[in-house]
Amino acid sequence: MTTFRSGCPIASTLDIIGDRWSLLIVRSMVMGASSYSDFLAAPEKIATNILAERLKRLEAVGLVVQTQPRKGSIRGTYALTAKGAALIPALQALARWGEENIPDRWPAPERFYAARPAGFGG
User: Fold this and answer.
1) Which of the 8 DSSP states describes residue 63?
2) Confidence (pTM)
3) CA distances from 116 to 20, 40, 62 (A)
4) What pLDDT is stored for residue 86 in this prediction?
5) Are 56 and 110 in contact (CB under 8 A)?
6) FRET pair for 108, CA 20 to 30 Å: which of 33, 43, 78, 101?
């Protein structure tokens, strides 16, 4: 269970996803990442211990689900839930803001901006 600092919806949302990695994991999932190794391949180079903790946290609050590992595999894959996919418009807004207000940023791929929450989750 998440402990919230206050009843403010912004503060409470930040209590869940306000660290430097959680939204990047969600972004990677929007772009097709689903395996542990996919997340490790992201350009930000998240450490394995942090990745494991964030995936557990995101799963605990219902933003992602983990599938059962296939036979012979250590880990399953991860997918956004409908609740996690509801973050897509916020991520797109953050990307647009960064492109418009921070010099020399990579443009987000068009398929990132084309993603819709209805295309994810169950």
Assistant:
1) S
2) 0.90
3) 23, 24, 18
4) 97
5) no
6) 78
Q: Which domains does the chain have, with CATH numbers?
A: 9-119 (1.10.10.10)
End-to-end CA distance of the chain: 22
Q: Judge whether 19 and 44 are in contact, CB under 8 Å.
A: no
83 conformational bin, left if phi > 0, alpha if psi -120 to 50, beta if neither: alpha
Distance CA 40, CA 47 (A): 8
24-48, pLDDT tens digit by residue? 999 999 999 999 999 999 999 999 9
Residue 21 per-residue DSSP state = S
β-pair partners for 99: none
Instruction: Tell me the Cα Rg of the chain.
Output: 15
List the Cα angle 99/17/57 in 5-degree steps: 135
pLDDT (tens digit, 9 = 90+) per residue, 69-106?
777 767 789 999 999 999 999 999 999 999 999 999 99
Residues in the chain: 122
Q: Is 105 helix (H, G, I), strand (E, B) or coil?
A: coil
